[in-house]
């Protein structure tokens, strides 16, 4: 399998999504890609066990992408080897009445990972500068002082949100949460094909909503908002990775590989050592247990 340098996915300078490929050639079969993914997720699982014992870092994985980009299946395939206690998936949909009584980041704070664990955000706090920007009338549900109509939502309002998100991520990373953000970069044609498959395959019909077509009509608006959000919030402490998503198997492998390689940079993550007194008496403890009948 072609060795891909995942650093090319990391956003370190201003990008234009139209210039970034949605498909990458890994020069291998689907079977080999699955085998590589299997190896990678097993390594990730072992690393998470070590992180659980180390108990100093939490990991926040953020997944964003257009409808049908493959977020759900990616979560299933990348994290399937994890101990159930080690990973929690949060899918953020339209805020409920309780969530709307708080600021827009409140529900995301509540879902942050405990030390030693992973939280996966399937759609994230970035929805607050994406879907709400394409549909600014949604902001009115938040009952924000001075925002009484869509006309009150100025460019400065969005700049403030970007600043708040950057501050949020800076705060949590300085307190032990490792943040990795992935944009699954799907082409409009591939989305069309996936929506058609939902309609043509009976067992997948339930995934289709007429609203998918309405949102598809706003494709260019979403691309513009994603591009600006990524450019304004990809920081060294909380980087964005743009992952070609037209091939699901390749996309899953690249996300898993990136997570593993980034976490392996934290060389201080080690299993805690036994206290010297316990070490000195291991033989005695073993003999005691072995002698029980």
UniProtKB/TrEMBL annotation:
Domain Polyphosphate kinase-2-related: 29-265
GO MF entry, a single one: polyphosphate kinase activity
Pfam families: PPK2
Keyword tags: Kinase, Transferase
Any GO BP annotation: polyphosphate metabolic process
PANTHER family the UniProt entry points to: POLYPHOSPHATE:AMP PHOSPHOTRANSFERASE, POLYPHOSPHATE:AMP PHOSPHOTRANSFERASE-RELATED
Protein name stated in the entry: Polyphosphate kinase-2-related domain-containing protein
Protein's organism: Nematostella vectensis (Starlet sea anemone)
